[in-house]
């Protein structure tokens, strides 16, 4: 199991990045909460990681803190929640916000995240209620975002990059385009567009 990587950031296109670790390039998927805190390309970064092994692929996920990875792993234990949905949850709200949703039975906030229906939201609340407490300090050290297969391709513009990132996080293409159109600006970077789009989708959290 690969649990931690430290290397040079080769490229970043949300939600993907590549780290050069002693000449070996590792491709990772990361939640937007981690992505917002990444340094510029060419700088060194350290990430906690979780490896998901499937029949058709080995996928490495990266996290800016142990608490983020802890929540990701706890979410994977919930019935019906896979890695993609767990990544979308971590991108759509901070661990602190997720904990508050669970503790206050706020399924409506969870339903606003991509791929989560009412039944899944209710199951998350029931199954995560005890696990949130056992994780301890889950909300510390997690950068709060305002807003979650295949080799990534570099996008041409911040707008197209933002749309691609939202689709990768689970939003349908037409929904991702609509979200970006509502907030796009020539002065915004792709990360800023994604942040604003996710904030709007989350009801202004």
TrEMBL record:
It is found in: Cytoplasm. Gene3D superfamilies: 5' to 3' exonuclease, C-terminal subdomain (1.10.150.20), DNA helicase RuvA subunit, C-terminal domain (1.10.8.10), Nucleic acid-binding proteins (2.40.50.140). Residues 154-205 are annotated as: Domain III. Keywords: Cytoplasm, DNA damage, DNA recombination, DNA repair, DNA-binding. Residues 73-92, 108-127 form the Helix-hairpin-helix DNA-binding motif class domain. Coiled coil: none annotated. GO terms for cellular component: cytoplasm; Holliday junction helicase complex; Holliday junction resolvase complex. InterPro entries: DNA_helicase_Holl-junc_RuvA_I, Hlx-hairpin-Hlx_DNA-bd_motif, NA-bd_OB-fold, RuvA, RuvA_2-like, RuvA_C, RuvA_C_sf. Residues 1-64 are annotated as: Domain I. GO terms for biological process: DNA recombination; DNA repair. It comes from the Bacteria. GO terms for molecular function: ATP binding; four-way junction DNA binding; four-way junction helicase activity. Pfam families: HHH_5 (PF14520), RuvA_C (PF07499), RuvA_N (PF01330). The RuvA-RuvB-RuvC complex processes Holliday junction (HJ) DNA during genetic recombination and DNA repair, while the RuvA-RuvB complex plays an important role in the rescue of blocked DNA replication forks via replication fork reversal (RFR). RuvA specifically binds to HJ cruciform DNA, conferring on it an open structure. The RuvB hexamer acts as an ATP-dependent pump, pulling dsDNA into and through the RuvAB complex. HJ branch migration allows RuvC to scan DNA until it finds its consensus sequence, where it cleaves and resolves the cruciform DNA. Homotetramer. Forms an RuvA(8)-RuvB(12)-Holliday junction (HJ) complex. HJ DNA is sandwiched between 2 RuvA tetramers; dsDNA enters through RuvA and exits via RuvB. An RuvB hexamer assembles on each DNA strand where it exits the tetramer. Each RuvB hexamer is contacted by two RuvA subunits (via domain III) on 2 adjacent RuvB subunits; this complex drives branch migration. In the full resolvosome a probable DNA-RuvA(4)-RuvB(12)-RuvC(2) complex forms which resolves the HJ. Has three domains with a flexible linker between the domains II and III and assumes an 'L' shape. Domain III is highly mobile and contacts RuvB. Belongs to the RuvA family. This is Holliday junction branch migration complex subunit RuvA. It comes from Sedimenticola thiotaurini.
């Amino acid at each position: 199991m690969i649990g931690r990587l430290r290397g040079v950031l080769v490229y970043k296109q949300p939600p993907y990045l590549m780290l050069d670790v002693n000449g070996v390039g590792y491709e990772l998927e990361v939640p937007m909460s981690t992505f917002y805190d990444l340094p510029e390309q060419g700088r060194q970064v350290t990430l906690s990681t979780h490896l998901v092994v499937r029949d058709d692929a080995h996928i490495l996920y990266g996290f800016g803190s142990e608490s983020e990875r802890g929540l990701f792993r706890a979410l994977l234990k919930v019935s019906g929640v896979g890695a993609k949905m767990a990544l979308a949850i971590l991108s759509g709200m901070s661990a602190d916000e997720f904990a508050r949703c669970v503790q206050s039975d706020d399924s409506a906030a969870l339903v606003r995240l991509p791929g989560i229906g009412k039944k899944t939201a209710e199951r998350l609340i029931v199954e995560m209620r005890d696990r949130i407490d056992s994780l301890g300090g889950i909300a510390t050290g997690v950068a709060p975002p305002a807003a979650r297969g295949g080799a990534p391709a570099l996008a041409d513009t911040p707008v197209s990059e933002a749309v691609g990132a939202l689709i990768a996080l689970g939003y349908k293409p037409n929904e991702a385009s609509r979200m970006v159109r509502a907030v796009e600006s020539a002065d915004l970077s792709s990360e800023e567009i994604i942040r604003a789009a996710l904030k709007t989708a989350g009801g202004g959290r």
